[in-house]
Amino acid sequence: MTASTDERPHWLPDFCSLPVLFAVMVVAELLVLVAEIAPSDETRPLLPRLATVSVFAQWLALVCAVCLCKLRPQLEKLSPWLGVLAAYALMLAVTVIGSALVFEIDHQLGLDLTLPTQFQGRFIWRSAALCALLGAALLRYFYVIEQWRARVRAEAKARFEALQARIRPHFLFNSMNTIASLIRSRPADAERAVEDLSDLFRAALGSDAGLSTLGVELDLMRQYLDIEKLRLGERLRVDMAVAELPPDLPIPALLLQPLAENAVYHGIAQLPEGGTVTVRGSRERDLVVLEIRNPQPPPAARAAARNGMALENTRARIAYHFGTRATLDVENGVQEFACVLRLPDEDSPG
Questions:
Q1: 194 and 223 in contact (C-beta within 8 Å)?
Q2: Are residues 268 and 325 in the same domain?
Q3: Segments forming the whole domain that contains residue 240
Q4: pLDDT greater than 90 at residue 98
């Protein structure tokens, strides 16, 4: 579920993956088309020649891809340049051996699909030359793509770590302000809030990997709302129904607390009569859905919106961990504001 667990950049792609295999086959077929459509000996019709050469080229491309797939762990133990040379030599060796085998089978069966017997060396040499051109282009292309992906992952990780560094001090600052407001008027409640806050930070700062679980984060949000109840009193009411959610689902640490903070600071706290923060959890097929709703003042009475950055930060963090499989949707109504968070649940029975 998380971003790549292996942060080490790869110079050789995963030839076992369907996208890489598809790319290899497409490029091989394009090379065949160019070679066969170009002016040449027209003693045989184009379509039979094209079909024969395509089958031969695709077979060689698949054999090379399978060999590189199986030997990738060993090749990547070498230095990049030595590994590239080894991969390149492997492709050429497979082509030479495969071409010689196909040429021999063709003449043993009398199919006449290749060149005459005296041109065996030419047939093998031409096949190896085409493989050399195709292999060099593909290896270079895949190397550039893998390096680009490594840079994207590094930039995403850096953005994520920057967001983590900004969220935790922000949470501490607001929580300490709440406690400070209670020290003189309600010292017992302030003491209890300090104890709750220490529990919150013990949970929030306990994971260096930036991952927590849904159960822990729901407890963290519940404790945060309890601290805010001390400040707002009867103006803040909480209605949580999250029994359907899987408590062990891995999610980024401190993912839910900023959403609850938005509901309080930009909704409940702006209303003289207060209101209810409603939290609902459900499961939709392979998704976990968490909905947080709160009342808010009419548009004309609202202060300048300042929660956009928190929402974008949350989107960036779930995108880092889940990619496009997770979403955060916002419903900004006339009297109500809602955040709907959808996270992938790979263990879902549906």
A1: no
A2: yes
A3: 181-344
A4: yes
